[in-house]
Design goal:
heterodimer, A: 484 residues, mainly beta, B: 822 residues, 7-stranded antiparallel sheet, 6-stranded antiparallel sheet, 17 helices, 34 strands
């Protein structure tokens, strides 16, 4: 029965706003390996694209020019000046400048390199993103093999061994952490407990959010609020820092769970993504459609784009995931908005695999100005959920049997991933539609917080003008109930 | 990105991607990469003019230069990118591992990488040495690599190390490859040697070994070395009699081996008797017996020794197994039979040979290849060295009977022993203390010697960083009392160490044997066995050389993951004063809560003692988990392991924090005030805001121990303690006179005023599971933290009749102010 329900959700859920958005594929010259790891626009309109082979390409008006080369897998890029960008490469955070303005960078300054990097393929550095004060944030994937027997090789030794010749550095530190680096290069560990955090974003208030990937201690991919000092789930990071423990994997799971700040949202695995990449807030002020202030999140395996609408309830972030757009040629790894409001999607799948015909590349998503009929947001209420639509709904929306609601959760445990646990239908007792037809309230009997995911599937709903619903599913992670 | 495998979803359409090999060009090509024998933070550059370089940003040094190509990035740029880069071409320069700079008197400069700037023809690296800004611009001219250095202004003398390689544009050469450079700009030019002639010498293997299994298999397939083949040749064995006749010391050793063999003739063979979970005692007995009997045979041709050895081997071969669940037991037993089988092959009859080689294969060599007993394969402590060496010995002894197993066993050893050998970096010290150095290094040396005796090379294994220095370690760690600075698990006794002889002979460093003569002399005098490897001395000891003690430092620190430092007043004076102090973490390998603990020798005796390790079996047999390093581990309820028994500080009666870490934050070998400062704050987290301990060896021969605490809870007790074999002295006052025979030591509490000595019992067991420590006591004093939470302690130790320095002449500044931080 569970399998049937799941198939149902996948089959009809991942439809997206294809009538309002189109995907355009950029032609890439054959001499360019465009495995995209980072993107940002220079003030003069050139798009800088950092790649896994360590190059940075500048693209403007279909003209490609290599701006820099020789980095070690640039996995993020943030423009900081007319001829300058900061890139996270594996060993360090580097400020790169084209000092003479000839179109090729010439100066590479090490901003921060305080973390262990031993050559292991999983020891990525991701980022940076930059806050209003000019500070940079980055993340460090957790893989690290300690030098036994100081600590037993407790992590990943069982799952994935270190490469031949792997020697940890003398003072290994900060794997599994996010960090903040000031413009002057002062390094500060920020939030811990990360696994393979291939995405960072700042919300308009400067709050840091991080995506992470399904695996040990992550039942599914997640988008997490990452305030300073938070522990986000993977114990390896506790080998360092203020709460350092010599055997973090020996800490009881209950203790880890007590310390953990739960994810803002889960992306139900296989249903809404399998490899969440970069989260990016829509700051276009309406140039990209009606979702200003919401998050768009790349999906590197299923080659889709997801949308997340968060709300803060009682000081805790939570919200709903919506499938948004599918059909990209390759896994979406990086996102950036252009000045015209189009959303550029940088892609790669080497070594990991993704849906689609291409190994790598660049596409952009353009809004055609037609507002999609979609669930704009899903918010928790004291008695259930309020759905806000982008257009007024038809009168038939008041019918209870149009809304199927399920609830499940993921285990927080040592094992890789998690099955859906506690999967049950949650009856919708009452449906009310607001006078303007844009809000539908669902009343349910049993609202359980604490990380339960409420999967909503809508059938047969149209807008007042007859337009069918672009996307009929939503997945709300309920961490906390509103105060009564 | 994630690690889920999504093979079904992998699209196959792909255009031909750009090449994954980087070629030299007419302008500078840069690539950051991982080069395993250098680091993962390499900035590689190909310079127009045909020279490629690898600059290590982790250590700010030019690590390598080569001609003939640049980099193959295929392993990094395909699939997940799990592999390192491979330089293409012929390497002509390997940079020295330590930083080639000295600013002023600091022998341990720090370096900070700032970045680089690229031009068309050159690349300019920017870094700081002890805060001094340096730019190093690399270019290639006429086939030579030109390094142009520019430094900021400094009044400190600046020295640069060339090791005699290449030419410097200016400067005054000094001893040891150093040059004093006065100019703020100079160049160092390195020219590759002319291309090799047709008779191409084999390039020295890189490190870690990169030889493939296929090549090893190819080599072993064609190999049938004559016997004896392990460690020594027939000619080598024959020459031992001549050596024994010519060299009195060798003669004494040979006589001892023969005496020991005689004593074994009537002894019954070993039995398969476990002690707890270990058979190790029996395995080690077998090692001793077979080395002794086999060598005695070759020294005398007396068949009784060979017959007795055969009986031992048959008995062991008949064991049900060699206890593979504790694989050290299997490894040492395999080594024992391998040597016995190989050295006495001509003397054994065919049924005995068959039984022994069958046992070596089925109870030794094939066990890790065919069963689950291979967890040790990736060990990075002494287990890796011992177990791989044992398996390689077995595999090569019976090479003809299973060539495939031999190739796999050798390849596994080459692949994984670097994990253990990482412990030697950078200066040859050992994380688990002198006792485990001896165990791990002996088998490490055996492994390299085994490979060299059969293959003529160790495939680069001997090039592990620090391995060429580790021969000095035991001597550096041994005090004039003849006892070692036995931090972590281990006793302070010194045995005969054939491995030190092997290293001293190989690297021509007779002074490394400075502390070997005494245990060897004692063993010969008393007729002791001298340890199970004693017979190897005959194979490994070099011709007597003149030790050059000036090549041994008086003051030394390990700069390693388990930091230790020692200070010594003299290498030649038997009354010399010697002190060692330890930093690091209790949760280190075989670690104790001995952070800040020190040992002290003077006038030939030990005054400050480390009680050593508790018996593993004693604790394990009580069902206690001895090996968890967590704060609540039963390990820390063991007196000898915890901080209450160490010569360190106890705040409020609490133990040190097991996960805390302490660094040697300051070190000086300046003769006026040699000292080490340990920042111990990390191991007292929650007990004090900061704790620093300074230990100085004064020119007067006195030792000053100076502690500074901040952030103590007012009223908290702080105990200063030192375990000593010394006796006497009246407690209750600030001065204590200890005696050992006719030797004495005065301990004076200089700070705080009013504190008085007490004498605590360290001899009686504290818990049911503790062993007694007869003949020891702890001298201690306890003070209360003042209201402001800042506390200063100072203790002056004055050995013998040396005049005590008046307090007003002592450097009582807080240890953090003794010298600049490292």
């Amino acid at each position: 029965m569970k399998r049937l329900a799941l198939a149902f959700a996948v089959g009809s859920g991942a439809i997206a706003a294809e009538d309002s958005y189109r995907i355009e594929t950029m032609a890439v010259p054959p001499h360019v390996s465009l495995e995209v790891g980072g993107m940002d626009f220079l003030p003069d309109g050139r798009l800088l694209i950092a790649t896994r082979r360590g190059e940075i390409w500048a693209l403007r008006d279909g003209q490609w020019r290599r701006w820099a080369a020789g980095l070690d897998e640039g996995m993020g890029l943030c423009v900081t000046g007319p001829q300058q960008a900061v890139v996270a490469q594996r060993p360090e955070l580097t400020r790169i400048t084209d000092t003479d303005g000839d179109g090729e960078a010439d100066t590479f300054e090490t901003l921060a390199d305080q973390w262990n990097y031993s050559g292991h393929v999983y020891e990525w550095s991701f980022g940076p993103v930059r806050d209003a004060a000019g500070n940079f944030f980055g993340t460090l994937a957790c893989w690290h093999f300690p030098k036994p027997p100081a600590r037993p090789a407790h992590y990943s030794g069982a799952e994935i061994g270190p490469p031949s010749g792997y020697v940890p550095e003398p003072a290994p530190r900060w794997r599994g952490w996010s960090f903040r680096v000031t413009p002057e290069g002062a390094f500060e560990p920020w939030a811990s407990g990360l696994r393979s955090p291939n995405g960072l974003g700042l919300d308009p208030n400067g709050e840091l959010f991080i995506t992470d990937n399904q695996g040990e201690y992550f039942g599914a991919c997640v988008l997490m609020h990452a305030p300073r000092g938070a522990f986000l789930g993977h114990p390896e990071a506790l080998a360092w820092g203020p709460a350092a423990d010599d055997d973090p994997f020996g800490l009881p799971l209950e203790e880890l769970a007590r310390r953990r700040l739960s994810p803002a949202v889960y992306f139900p695995y296989g249903i809404a993504g399998q490899s969440a990449s970069q989260p990016l807030v829509d700051t276009t002020g309406g140039k990209f459609g009606p979702f200003t202030g919401q998050w768009f999140v790349g999906e590197q395996t299923q080659s889709t784009l997801m949308r997340v609408a968060l709300e803060e309830v009682g000081g805790v972030w939570q919200g709903a995931v919506f499938p948004f757009l599918r059909g990209f040629q390759c896994g979406v790894n990086r996102l950036v908005f252009a000045a015209d409001g189009s959303l550029w999607a940088g892609q790669t799948q080497r070594g990991w695999g993704s849906v689609g015909s291409a190994q790598e590349g660049l596409e952009r998503v353009v809004w055609n100005g037609v507002t999609p009929f979609d669930i704009h947001s899903m918010r928790v209420t004291k008695t259930g959920f309020a759905l806000h639509f982008t257009e007024p709904v038809a009168a038939a929306a008041a019918s209870r049997d149009r809304y199927a609601l399920r609830r499940f959760h993921y285990a927080y445990h040592r094992q890789y991933g998690s099955p859906l646990l506690g999967d049950t239908m949650v009856p919708v007792r009452e449906v009310t539609v607001s006078a303007d037809g844009r809000r539908v309230d669902l009343v349910v009997d049993d609202l359980t917080a604490g990380g339960e995911i409420y999967a909503l599937q809508i059938t047969g709903l149209a807008a007042a003008d007859g337009t069918p619903l672009a996307n009929a599913s939503a997945y709300y992670t309920l961490n906390r109930l509103p105060a009564p | 990105m994630k690690s889920a495998v999504l093979a079904l979803l992998v699209a196959t359409a792909a255009l031909a991607a750009p090449p994954t090999t980087l070629e030299p060009a007419d302008r500078v090509v840069v690539q950051r990469c991982w080069l395993p024998d250098i680091s993962a933070r390499v900035v590689a550059a190909s310079l127009p003019g045909g020279v490629s370089v690898a600059f290590d940003a982790a250590t700010c040094r030019l690590a390598a230069a080569w001609t003939g190509g640049f980099l193959d990035m295929t392993a990094t740029w395909t699939e997940r990118g799990a592999g390192p880069a491979t330089p293409v071409g012929h390497r002509f320069f390997t940079g020295p591992t330590p930083l080639p700079w000295r600013l002023g008197a600091n022998d341990h400069p720090s370096a900070r990488f700032l970045g680089y700037r690229t031009g068309h023809q050159s690349i300019e690296f920017r870094y700081e040495i002890d805060g001094l800004r340096v730019t190093e611009t690399l270019s290639a001219t006429d086939g030579s690599l030109v390094r142009r250095f520019q430094t900021a202004e400094t009044r400190e003398p600046l020295r640069f190390f060339t090791g005699g390689r290449g030419s410097l544009s200016s400067g005054a050469p000094e001893a040891g490859g150093w040059t004093a450079v006065a100019a703020r700009e100079f160049t160092h030019t390195l020219t590759p040697a002319a291309p090799a002639t047709a008779d191409v010498a084999r390039e020295p293997a890189g490190y870690p070994p990169s030889v493939t299994l296929a090549r090893i298999a190819e080599t072993t397939a064609a190999l049938t070395p004559p016997r004896p083949r392990l460690l020594v040749t027939a000619a080598g064995l024959r020459s031992l009699r001549e050596r024994a006749a010519r060299d009195p010391r060798a003669g004494e050793i040979a006589a001892s081996v023969q005496r020991q063999a005689d004593a074994l003739l009537a002894a019954p063979p070993v039995e398969r008797r476990l002690e707890g979970r270990r058979l190790l005692g029996e395995s080690r007995r077998a090692v001793h017996r077979l080395l002794t009997l086999a060598l005695a045979f070759h020294l005398t041709d007396n068949p009784a020794y060979a017959e007795r050895a055969a009986r031992e081997m048959l008995a062991v071969a008949d064991f049900a197994d060699w206890n593979p669940s504790h694989f050290l037991d299997t490894a040492e037993m395999t080594f024992a039979l391998a040597v016995g089988y190989d050295w006495l092959h001509a003397q054994l009859d065919e049924p005995t040979r068959a039984a022994v080689r069958q046992a070596i294969l089925t109870k030794g060599v094939r066990v890790p290849l065919e069963t689950k007993h291979h967890q040790w394969t990736r060990a990075s402590n002494n287990w890796g060295q011992v177990c791989h060496a044992g398996m390689v010995a077995g595999a090569l002894a019976v090479l003809e009977d299973d060539r495939e197993a031999a190739a796999t066993t050798v390849h596994r050893a080459l692949t994984h022993v670097p994990r253990s050998m990482a412990a030697f970096a950078p200066n040859g010290s050992y994380p688990e203390g002198p006792g485990y150095w001896s165990y791990g290094t002996t088998y490490n040396v055996l492994l390299i010697a085994l490979l060299e005796s059969v293959f003529g090379e160790s495939f680069g294994l001997d090039r592990a960083p620090g391995f060429d220095r580790t021969g000095a370690y035991l001597t550096l760690m041994t005090g004039p009392s003849g006892k070692t600075f036995n931090y972590a698990d281990g006793g302070s006794g010194r045995g005969v160490e054939p491995a030190v002889h092997w290293l001293a002979a190989r690297y021509r460093r007779a002074e490394w044997l400075a502390s070997e003569e005494r245990p060897l002399g004692e063993a010969l005098e008393r007729g002791d066995k001298g340890g199970r490897f004693f017979p190897l001395l005959l194979l490994w000891m070099g011709e007597a050389g003149t030790p050059d003690f000036s090549r041994l430092p008086l003051h030394w620190h390990s700069a390693s993951a388990v930091p230790v430092a020692v200070h010594r007043s003299s290498w030649s004076d038997p009354a010399a004063v010697f002190a060692g102090i330890k930093a690091g973490t209790p949760s280190g390998p075989h670690g104790h809560m001995d952070i800040g603990s020190f040992v002290l020798d003077a006038d030939g005796v030990r005054w400050a003692t480390d009680l050593g390790a508790e018996s593993y079996h004693r604790i394990e047999s009580r069902g206690m988990n001895f090996w968890s390093m967590a704060q609540d581990s039963p390990r820390w309820s063991v007196f000898r392991q915890n901080s209450l028994s160490h010569n360190t500080l106890v705040i409020g009666g609490a133990l040190q924090r097991a996960t805390g870490r302490a660094e040697i934050s300051r070190f000086s070998d300046a003769p006026a005030f040699p000292h080490t400062v340990v920042d111990m704050s990390g191991v007292y987290e929650g007990q004090a805001a900061s704790v620093h301990r300074g230990l100085a060896l004064l020119p007067s021969g006195e030792v000053l121990v100076r502690d500074r605490f901040t952030g103590l809870t007012p009223g908290a007790t702080v105990r200063w303690g030192m375990v000593t074999p010394g006796t006497g002295g009246a407690p209750g006052v600030d001065s204590l006179l200890l005696h050992q025979g006719d030797k004495s030591l005065t301990l004076r509490i200089v700070q705080p005023p009013g504190a008085a000595w007490e004498i605590l019992d360290s001899a009686t067991p504290k818990n049911e599971w503790d062993s007694p420590n007869p003949g020891t006591a702890m001298v201690a004093f306890t003070v209360k933290a003042p209201e402001n939470g800042t506390l200063d302690l100072a203790v002056l130790g004055t050995p013998g009749q040396r005049p005590a320095t008046p307090p007003e002449q002592l450097n009582l500044r807080p240890p953090m102010e003794w010298s600049p931080a490292r």
